[in-house]
Amino acid sequence: MKILVVEDEVELADLIVQSLTKEYFVVEAVNDFYSALDKINNYLYDCILLDIGLPGGSGIEVLEYLRDNAKSENVIIISAKDSLEDKIMGLNLGADDYLTKPFHLAELNARVKAVLRRKELDGKQRLEFGDVSMDLEERKVYVDAYALELNRKEFDILRYFLFNKNRLVSKMSLAEHVWGDNIDQADNLDFVYYQIKNLRKKLKAVDAGIEIESVYGTGYRVKEL
Prior knowledge:
Elements: E1 2-6, H1 10-22, E2 26-30, H2 33-42, E3 47-50, E4 53-54, E5 57-58, H3 59-68, E6 74-79, H4 84-92, E7 97-100, H5 105-120, E8 126-129, E9 132-135, E10 140-143, E11 146-148, H6 152-163, E12 169-170, H7 171-179, H8 190-205, E13 210-215, E14 219-224
Parallel strand pairs: 1-2, 1-3, 3-6, 6-7
Antiparallel strand pairs: 4-5, 8-9, 9-10, 10-11, 12-14, 13-14
Helix pairs in contact: 1-5, 2-3, 6-7, 6-8
GO molecular function: phosphorelay response regulator activity; transcription cis-regulatory region binding
InterPro entries: CheY-like_superfamily, OmpR/PhoB-type_DNA-bd, Sig_transdc_resp-reg_receiver, WalR-like, WH-like_DNA-bd_sf
Keywords: DNA-binding, Phosphoprotein, Transcription, Transcription regulation, Two-component regulatory system
């Protein structure tokens, strides 16, 4: 899962990035209004942590931009402002939660996970497709009752596929969600192919009822056999 942190306090932004990275999220951070718009225009995120007070603009304007451009990213406002008016305005513009500074990083992590579960999984902790079940909290994958051993990137790739089951996923979109935005500067994406190759072998070895199909020149699709 990929998260964008929009926070002008650089030290706080760094702490948030470190904390969420330990929870196995892919995290990007920007510190001003225009950098936030640039990221939102060019990349997709599962969740945006958004400060209200930003150099060059405001978090409220970012929310308005997301709404006006039909962007569906989950948004948690993180702000030093604790007024009821600000909270109502943010929630009315489409924010999913509002957390007032100062806050504990553990609470922020919990809020992020809760928003993602609520919006993407209807509150569930598991992704299921065919005979494959993924426990997102424990980061475990089962094929029927068999525990499938995956490395971190294999797990993240499979998670992205299961969130997009039966949909065509471009190689670049997959790479950005698993490795981060700067991956678009890589000379090639061969490393994506090798991770998927290993994941396919592991799924096939346990006769999993799903497969990762290559779509020539475009990307991949996960489907049931």
